Amino acid sequence: MSARPSLEALTRLAIAAGREIMAVRATGFEAMIKGDGSPVTIADQRAEALIEAGLSELAPDIPMVGEEAVADGRIPAPSARYFCVDALDGTRGFAKGGDEFTVNIALIEAGAPTMGVVLAPPSGELYAGEPGRALRARVQLDETAPIAFEAINTSAQTGAWRIMASRTFGRTEHAKKFAAALGAQSQDDAASSIKFCRVAEGAADLYPRFGDLNEWDAAAGHAVLSAAGGGVMKIDGAPLIYGARAEGFLFRGLIAYANQAAANAALDALKRLGV
Question: Is the pTM of this model over 0.85?
Answer without folding.
Answer: yes
